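WP5 quarterly update. Target: YdbS-like PH domain-containing protein. Source organism: Streptomonospora alba. Length: 467 aa.
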Amino acid sequence: MRFLPPTADAPPEPQGQAPPHPEGGPRQPSESDVARGAHRTHWATVPLQVLLAVVVFLALPGTLIMQLGFGWLLLMTLGVACGAIAFSLLSWWNSSFGLRDDHLVVHSGLIRRASREIPLSRLQAVDVVRPLLMQVLGLAELRVELAGGDAGEIRLRYLTWGRAERLRAALLAHAAGLSGTTPKAPEWPFYRLPFGLLLGALAFRLPVLGSVLLFVLLIAAGAAAFGSTGYFEPGVLGGAVPLLLGLMRGFLGPLLRYTDFYASLSPDGLRLRYGIFQARMQTVPPGRVQAVRIVEPVLWRALGVVRVEANVAGYVGERQMDSSTLLPVVPRRLGYLLAGQLFPGTDVSRTEMHPAGSGRARDGALGVDEQLFVTRRGLVCRVTEIVPHTRTQSLRMTVGPLSRRRGVATVEADTPPGPIRARASGREIGEARRIVDGTAAYGHAARRRSAGPERWATRSDAPSSPP
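Structure tokens (predicted):
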């Protein structure tokens, strides 16, 4: 039911050419020939949409209609179901998707027709998501992230699991500058997260331990009050319930999300597989990671593990926060090794770090070399943020009224939207100006050497395999 690492390469796509579909509707090629012709989503999409419409009707207006009698409720539910069947079936029939040259073409809509033709050079990431029900039915949802903000996401729901995998491989091949019939790229195992380590790391955090302790104290206080007065104190329940909900969100949620976590490296990018109730396969193509953050909570340092997060181009808003974690729990050495894989030719360990001139530990340290802009800050939770010069959008030096009196400034390297904001505070103003000028010069030189992330498979500097 869950995503497992492949044991062999996918077979080559068939070589027969499918004719283009006529104007009246898409021609249905064979199931495996997803790189040619036009296709529709799986027919099971129609009954699923009808079921959803009926459930929403029964949950909202159905409770009011029930007062008129069961017969009226049954009659109106039947009418809603018939209307939903007609609308969903026509919408499904008039919707299609397909690959045309190196463009993804999507037609959708019944009352208001919409056609999108997207060059795959803008492709930022491809995710295959399988909620629990879809796993049971053998279906999957394909999510294509493009450069373009909130309007840059395309969702194809639902496809068979095999077709979603083949379409994902075809999209990545086109985006890399290869043929859509190119066999699925091989991959090399990078890291599999043991369940025991995940369980221990999530529990071994100050917020979780503090919440558990406070919850136990509240329950003990409530039990003592009940034993002395004979009645239960409502205030205990009012404090214990939010704590319990917070624990479920902060502990149980990540535990279920990242169970069976597996990461691998491939010529078409970083592949992540994880989840039980919503199995997910995420592929981030080369060059789409804009910045990396390595987080070391104070208790995790004893375990020697870190969390690796990233700003990924294309993800915005809630989708960015939902997909920013690359490795939820990983040994420190592998966390820094992944940063080197994501930014080829760099080595964070060789970047010399300089503490702030103010001498305060909380101001952290800064390191700049020919490839990287690196900041480190935090005492309770140490955070190391890594931005390659080729991904820096702008450089900023900020001096507020109080900072001016102290003679210090903050230097920040801006990247595309995400949780990472690489900043170094407490730098002397003269030093900050030199840092901005020097980093800008490094950035100009790095961008002249780089051809950009598009068509990564046809560039001369494309890696053939990880070390």
